[in-house]
């Protein structure tokens, strides 16, 4: 067994997933099917109270359904239990649930729009976006059955979808796009991505990719959900979040040049209601970049 095969990673929230043991994985017998329950509000929750924090700085969240709920529903997703680093998109991570919460809460932003997701993984956030958007294009690496898994999960949840949803290959390291992908990028209004920052080379390629996307076609807004992952290093003698810090460095460097210097980059408060069941920790962050 190679070192890479031995160094597998499991999402920190996997033990809390509600697994559907009656459903059978279609792409890999080692995969599992999980049920992600969420509450769908009848309209955007206006005037929701600002969430308070506990002594550790974590948000104090009501576990009951937010005001205005009309139904509770489920996204079914086939996903891996553990993967090597380069295939973490085959799992589901906390920032994807944060971003899905934001989509539900801020549905007016997505309503009848064309949405493009980068690094869609198993497709959970794209599926939620397709409840409101007129068209969603899911993108990820065309490798290791990722796109097939995306398509399979979309079919599992077709009863939820309002808009058309498409699956396309997109590699951050290759900016030479097909004419079809270029057209979809040009026509996209909203870009979403979650937990795509886990390797410095990938981060640099991601920033170059969003620079091209936000420069192509109509004006767009990107919403990026991330989780700061802290490690203790001897060099710093402290707990640091190196991948997140490198992301900030790449964004700040990009902002010194056009067209990025003309764009608005801001952090979005995450005190909106919680519709999915997960721990919304203080390490979760959400960014907005508007061209």
From TrEMBL:
GO cellular component: nucleus
An example molecular function term from Gene Ontology annotations: protein methyltransferase activity
SUPFAM superfamilies: S-adenosyl-L-methionine-dependent methyltransferases
Pfam families tied to this protein: Methyltransf_16 (PF10294)
Entries under InterPro entries matching the protein: Methyltransf_16, METTL22, SAM-dependent_MTases_sf
Superkingdom, natural source: Eukaryota
Name of the protein this chain belongs to: Methyltransferase-like protein 22
Biological source species: Polyplax serrata
Biological classification of the source: Eukaryota, Metazoa, Ecdysozoa, Arthropoda, Hexapoda
């Amino acid at each position: 067994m190679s070192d890479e095969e031995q160094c597998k990673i499991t999402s920190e929230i996997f033990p809390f997933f509600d697994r559907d043991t009656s459903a059978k994985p279609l792409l890999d017998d080692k995969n599992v099917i999980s049920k992600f329950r969420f509450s769908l509000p009848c309209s955007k929750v206006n005037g929701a109270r600002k969430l308070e924090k506990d002594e550790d700085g974590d948000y104090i969240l009501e576990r009951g359904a937010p005001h205005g709920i009309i139904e509770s529903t489920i996204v079914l997703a086939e996903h891996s239990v553990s993967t090597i680093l380069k295939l973490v998109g085959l799992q589901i991570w906390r920032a994807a649930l944060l971003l899905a919460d934001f989509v539900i809460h801020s549905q007016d932003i997505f309503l009848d729009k064309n949405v493009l997701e980068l690094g869609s993984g198993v497709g959970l956030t794209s599926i939620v976006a397709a409840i409101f958007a007129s068209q969603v294009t899911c993108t990820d690496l065309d490798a290791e059955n990722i796109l097939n898994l995306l398509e399979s999960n979309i079919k599992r949840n077709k009863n939820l979808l309002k808009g058309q949803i498409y699956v396309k290959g997109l590699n951050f390291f290759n900016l030479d796009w097909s004419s079809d992908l270029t057209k979809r990028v040009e026509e996209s209004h909203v870009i979403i991505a979650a937990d795509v920052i886990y390797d410095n080379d990938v981060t640099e390629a991601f920033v170059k990719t969003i620079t091209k996307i936000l420069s192509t076609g109509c004006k767009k807004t990107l919403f990026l959900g991330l989780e700061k992952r802290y490690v203790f290093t001897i060099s710093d003698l402290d707990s640091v979040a190196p991948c997140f810090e490198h992301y900030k460095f790449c964004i700040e460097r990009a902002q010194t040049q056009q067209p990025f210097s003309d764009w608005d980059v801001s952090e979005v408060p995450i005190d909106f209601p919680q519709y999915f069941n997960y721990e919304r920790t203080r390490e979760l962050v959400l960014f907005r970049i508007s061209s």
